[in-house]
Structures are given as C-alpha cells and as structure tokens.
C-alpha cells in the first residue's frame, strides 16, 4: 500500500519525519521537494488561500489525493498519475512521463505517484 508522510530535509540532505512512522521492513521511498518555508506562491490555482495553517491545507490535500487514489485504482491502476487535489492532471507509464506531462499542463507541483492495479503485488526493495 502506498503511503504519503510529511518530513523536513536540512541543508545536508538529512530527512526528519514530522510524525512517527512504523514499518516492518526496509522500504524504498520517493522524495518530493516542496516550495521553501511552506510558501504557497508556486502551488496550483486550485488551492486558494483559505486562511488555514499550511499544515492543515497540506493534510486536506493529502486526504483528497488518497480519496482519489482509492476511488480510481481500477480505472488507472498500473500507471503513474499526477494529481492536484482530486483532479487528475496526467498519466504515464513512468514517473518521468507523468511528471513531464503535468509540467506541460502547467502543474509542475502536481503530486505524482504510481497507482498499482487492484490485484497487483508490489515488490519492495531494501538496502544492504
């Protein structure tokens, strides 16, 4: 199961999770760098300023994205998808293809992830 967690990275590249995360085995991760200092200027227009704290807005977007992923696993399974909230921006056979298509659509900050088919078993690599 795919899971999104929030973290901070320092200038040395060290990553600190903002909430505890419990895993039972080593896992691969993708890291997406967000705008500096929680800035929202580069965020897509579908995320208007709501007066809510940035963390609440991020949590709301994550919940929207997870709802979309669950609802569309069957129709878009086996593809990389780029989302802005619950709006599908692009798809692709690879992360790069989906990301480049999202950038071409004007959504460089779209959330891109692999959406497995409902019956697909994912292999998770580890570090030695």
List key phrases describing it.
single chain, 128 residues, alpha+beta, three-stranded antiparallel β-sheet, 25% helix, globular
Task: Give a quick summary of the entry.
The chain has helices spanning 54-71, 73-76, 95-104, and strands spanning 7-9, 15-17, 79-84, 87-92, 111-115. It has 128 residues and is an alpha+beta fold. The two termini are 23 Å apart.
Report what the structure shows.
The protein has 128 residues and is of the alpha+beta class. The protein has one domain (7-115). Helix content is 25%, strand content 18%. It has three helices and five strands, in the order ββααββαβ. The chain has helices spanning 54-71, 73-76, 95-104, and strands at 7-9, 15-17, 79-84, 87-92, 111-115. The protein has a three-stranded antiparallel sheet, sandwiched between helices. Strands 1-2 form a two-stranded antiparallel sheet. The two termini are 23 Å apart. The model is unreliable at 39-51 (pLDDT under 50).
List the helices and strands and how they pair.
Layout: E1 7-9, E2 15-17, H1 54-71, H2 73-76, E3 79-84, E4 87-92, H3 95-104, E5 111-115
Antiparallel strand pairs: 1-2, 3-4, 3-5
Helix/strand-derived class?
alpha+beta
Number of helices: 3
Poorly predicted spans: 39-51
The topology string of helices and strands comes to EEHHEEHE
**Radius of gyration, taken over Cα atoms and rounded to an integer in Å:** 15 Å
What characterizes the major β-sheet? 3 strands, antiparallel
Oligomer classification: single chain
Number of strands: 5
Average predicted confidence as pLDDT: 79
Q: How helical, in percent, are the residues? A: 25-40%
Q: In the residues, how many domains can be counted?
A: 1
Strand order of the largest sheet: 4-3-5
What portion of the residues fall into strands of 2 or more residues? Answer: 15-25%
Termini, distance in Å?
23 Å
User: What overall form do the CA principal axes indicate?
Assistant: globular
């Amino acid at each position: 199961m795919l899971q999104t967690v929030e973290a901070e990275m320092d200038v040395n590249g060290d990553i600190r999770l903002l909430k505890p995360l419990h895993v039972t085995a080593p896992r691969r991760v993708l890291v997406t760098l967000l705008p500096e200092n929680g800035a929202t200027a580069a965020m897509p227009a579908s995320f208007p300023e709501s007066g809510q704290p940035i963390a609440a807005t991020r949590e709301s977007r994550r919940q929207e994205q997870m709802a979309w992923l669950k609802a569309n696993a069957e129709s878009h399974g086996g593809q990389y998808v780029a989302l802005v909230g619950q709006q599908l921006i692009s798809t692709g056979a690879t992360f790069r293809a989906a990301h480049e298509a999202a950038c071409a659509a004007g959504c460089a900050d779209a959330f891109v992830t692999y959406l497995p088919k409902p019956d697909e078993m994912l292999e998770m690599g580890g570090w030695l």
